[in-house]
Amino acid sequence: MSKSTKPTMDPTKMGLGRSIAVLTSGGDAQGMNAAVRATVRVGLYTGAKVYFVHEGYQGLVDGGDNIRQATWESVSMMLQLGGTVIGSARCKDFRCREGRLTAACNLVKLGITNLCVIGGDGSLTGANQFRTEWSGLLADLVKAGKITDQEAKHSSHLNIVGMVGSIDNDFCGTDMTIGTDSALHRIIEVVDAITTTAQSHQRTFILEVMGRHCGYLALVTALACGADWVFIPEMPPDEDWENHLCRRLTDQRSRGSRLNVIIVAEGAMSRDGKPITSDQIKKLVTDRLGFDTRATVLGHVQRGGTPSAFDRILGSRMGVEAVMALLEATPETPACVVSLSGNQAVRLPLMECVQVTKDVTAAMDEGRFEDAIKLRGKSFENNWNTYKLLAHINPPDVKSNINVAIMNVGAPCAGMNAAVRAAVRMGIIQGHSMLAVHDGFDGLAHGHIEPIAWTGVSGWTGKGGSMLGTKRVLPGKILEEISQNIAKFNIHALVIVGGFEAYVGGLEMVQAREKYEEMCIPMVVIPATVSNNVPGSDFSIGADTALNTITSTCDRIKQSAAGTKRRVFIVETMGGYCGYLATMAGLAAGADAAYIFEEKFGIKDLEVNVVHLLEKMKTTVKRGLILRNENSNANYTTDFVFNLYSEEGKGVFDCRKNVLGHMQQGGTPTPFDRNFGTKMGAKSVRWLTEKLRECHRHGRIFANTPDSACVLGMRKRALTFQPLADLKEDTDFEHRIPKTQWWLKIRPIMKILAKYDIKLDTSERADMEHVIKKRGAIGK
């Protein structure tokens, strides 16, 4: 992201004398409420007046009670609600100039010149048209005597910022739109439930998901559940698809599979533009193969339910960025949309994004399907390529004579099995023999190693924990035995899936290369731990699942506290010394404070937090939620914090404490962890294959360069390989955390949203980027 540094101004005075209106428009999406809440609270924090516009553009036209001033407390308890609390409506009136004239009059009368629109591409295009016509609308209103010259002068320019709220993820320029992750949660819950019944009866299930003309939901669902086939509008199947599909299903059954899963996007079509429906596919499979087949159309279930942790954090971060973009805008600034790319906040010109989104539709209409995939962005393209590799290619007849071993190290976490499955299948596709190592380095030392085949990992994507078995044992003291087994089993490359121990263990193996020639093989570490503390990666597999577990538990706790009133809950989270879970869960659950090791705190800070809660109890929001990372402070333990709050709150509030414990490591993986694990597993083996070619000398493998042992990690916007040795400098080995952690920068947002009087650093801001030039280079 291009960042620019500008002279800092006091962010609490940026909005003085300004008014901001926020509206949600088009189809509802989970996470819209988080965006509304953040926009309101950050707007108020900057000193601006903030208004709700109820019922979308219809409310803007109707005016009156539909445009109401928002207060801090009016957005309380909104975070965990699905849909949009301020309502959304399709509005015909706003499409004609007469309606926009009335809307402009309503805004001018209230002195509102900043509009934040949360919706899809249609809603955002409408907002841009409104902005373009603004001066003409004011001139007409003055001429008609509806507003004065003074009022027109005061409201001479309208600033527009968009946030994309749509479960379809069909807006180009952004990795994820608000609501997409939650919709995937709903879909995967159904897929998991359906696969259990399908296995019992050896059935074929066809699942139709939403997405309009975009295949994102269908594609990621297919990746996340290991579907046999997926139909998406961007890439219709080849001419002879009916025969190909039947061959694939029969082949899967002959390999011992008890079920088949086919995912269909609602906009799926054939090469000649005819719709492909779930009923059509059901008829084909039943008539041709005689399989017991069922079709399920998911419908509006996908829009409903509580937003996922990701959507709450996305909505909250976008709300902050939207307010800053509005208050920094000038009449020359084009209307922008705020978005996330990787973990970076970006601002993109709204109409450029809309144009690329239209280009996708044009490419599909003209039969340029490869272009359509590219225009959807890098993230979509990567998903499609990974899916094709893992589902559509039969293993080659010629073997590579390479043995690749795969193991889990450290504590178990959800998503590990997805990474193992993808790595095993990618290895088999490339002609390698795959070896499963049970129980980590301990198993490698004691020879708990066996071949693992394509069907050996069937159904692993959705399973929590570690199917291979995992231990925390490091290789340091058993290097002799490990080297013997590497030679005995003829292991040419190693995939290590795990947490901090996986990194340290990999490092010990690299350092042992001087003494043991057997260790001179390519190795790759895939970060997988709920703690998200592996150097070289912004995200670890498993952290998203743990975050959702904590967030849903906090929702229930807040509900309990809201019922009893005047109650404060102290909740202890996992993470070792890493405060990622406590911080992100604090943002997703709307906590009042989150104590972490990385941000030192003392008795004065604790006193400030207690006073803050005492003040809060005087408002209508009579409850509190405090998160504490398990190792945040050796002396200020969870019991100490609980006792302190209990004593200081006597007569005003009472306290309860919850230690969440190992429930954070369990459960079925979230769609993000399944998808992330699948992409990481597949990419790691492709990289190893490349390295093996480089290291092949005189008929054997010899890898002793630093770049032959890497961590595969997500860095800002891309998956990158970084040598284990190069990451040593950025690692605090005593506390098992990286020295630099990106998420610390968003901690102030949590504090501002909890009404703490702190300064938000606005010196480093997201510059406007361009989409048109980049075409396919959008996203991860």
Write the topology of this structure.
Elements: E1 3-5, E2 19-24, H1 32-45, E3 49-53, H2 56-62, E4 67-69, H3 97-110, E5 114-119, H4 121-143, H5 149-154, E6 159-164, H6 180-201, E7 204-209, H7 216-225, E8 229-231, H8 241-254, E9 260-265, H9 278-289, E10 293-297, H10 309-328, E11 336-341, E12 344-349, H11 350-365, H12 369-375, H13 378-392, E13 403-409, H14 416-429, E14 433-437, H15 440-445, E15 449-451, E16 470-471, H16 479-488, E17 493-498, H17 500-511, E18 523-527, H18 543-564, E19 567-573, H19 580-589, E20 593-595, H20 603-616, E21 623-629, H21 638-648, E22 654-659, H22 671-694, E23 696-697, E24 700-701, E25 709-715, E26 718-723, E27 731-732, E28 737-738, H23 747-753, E29 764-766
Parallel strand pairs: 2-3, 2-5, 5-6, 6-11, 7-9, 7-10, 8-9, 13-14, 13-16, 13-17, 17-18, 18-25, 19-21, 19-22, 20-21
Antiparallel strand pairs: 1-29, 3-4, 11-12, 14-15, 23-24, 25-26, 27-28
Helix pairs in contact: 1-10, 2-3, 3-4, 4-11, 6-7, 7-13, 7-22, 10-19, 11-12, 13-22, 14-22, 18-19, 19-23
